[in-house]
Amino acid sequence: MNRVLVVSYYFPPAGGTAAQRVTKFVKYLPENGWIPTVLTVHDKYYPLLDFSMLDETPESIKVERTPCIDFYRFFARVAKTKLNDVELFKFDYMDLHWYEKLIVWIRRAFFIPDARLFWLPFAVFKGLRIIKRDKIDVIFTASPPFTCALVGYVLSILTGKPWVSDYRDPWTGAYFYLKRPRLSAWVERQMERLLAKRAAWITANIEDTARKLENNYGVKRWTVIPNGYDPQDFENIVPVKNDKFTVLYAGTVNEKMHPLPVVDAMIKLFYEQPDQIGKVQFKIIGRIAPEMKRCFENPNHAFFLKPSPPVSHREIIREMLGADILVLAIPEGRPEIVSGKLFEYLRAGGLIICLDNWGASAQIVKQAKAGWTQNDYLSIYCNIRDVLRNRETGEWFWDWRTLKREDVIEQFDRRRNTARLAEILNKATEGEKR
Q1: What is the rounded CA–CA span in Å between residue 312 and residue 21?
Q2: pLDDT tens, position by position, 368-421
Q3: CB–CB of 175/336 below 8 Å?
Q4: Between the CA atoms of 76, 14, 355 and 308, what dihedral angle is there, to the nearest 10 degrees?
Q5: What domains are there in the chain, each with its CATH number?
């Protein structure tokens, strides 16, 4: 069996979507000939915890944790706010004190590639010991945060071990990319170039990320390994029983990614059909950014809008299975983004409303024949109205369940995709160079 060092800032019990991709890789790599050792941080540094995710890691897997000097924790103390709120701060729109503005400027100007930068010395020191102790064959890093990629780069330089860099999201091209001073932005682009060209192989969850690395930096060795769903997550799960027709949005809500068109559609539904009041609800489960709370915590909409904080991954699967319609939001202006939540929606089986007409996520929904792709509230209203009407009469205007293409959905099986990662690790250890 070969051995791989997996460097990931987020790992169970870290909650949210950031830890899921790498966790599933670690879960299924052993059956593909690779024994992983995980290098991560202590769980006190995570803004969200989900202890149910600990069950995803086999007991035989070594998980090494280190301290970290965390910028977010420092800012939370200064700003006197909760840690999980800090990561959602829209700094440009906050009413900050002068000393808070100074801290934000320092973050933008000097924390390159990200606020986890000061994990680097701890991770490198521990990583060197693990590579020597466990006779590691290859280094694998899961980013963002891209400090993980920087750790992989340094470890590869110091040990000569091949390094595979995984992009869960883009780096400088991300829609959530922090606006930096011009010089700092240039330095970061050079860092991205240096690291991308050093990696023995790059894996990305969407093709657009890999193509931009190729076009910008001449990267040739890359493979797309999409996010997906784990069939085992759906085994022996009892769906939530809702006493109302339920529309569900699971995930973060912020200024650039939100389900407001669905809220507007439901307001129109209740205006046109007041008899539906009390029969339909819209659940929003996840973190809501401060600037969006007035929209989604409006007491005038409390009769149908049900926001709630994040829950465990197992519980969100139960909610998905119990919902009638599942809502998927795409970041504004970034149609190439494919949300990891999409694949669990596909496996859960509910009708999907993808709030995009033609982007990458919309194409998958269309290929799978799993729902609608639209972002205008009138079209959404008409479709929800028709579903309710046909549900009450017992007649579906189109039998979407029989139309769904299971062959499209099955290609996003996490187990299958981990086998592809194992092939990349095998190639990396064969001594092939860029």
Answers
A1: 16
A2: 988 999 889 999 999 999 889 887 776 654 455 545 687 888 889 999 999 999
A3: no
A4: -70
A5: 2-228+414-429 (3.40.50.2000), 232-410 (3.40.50.2000)
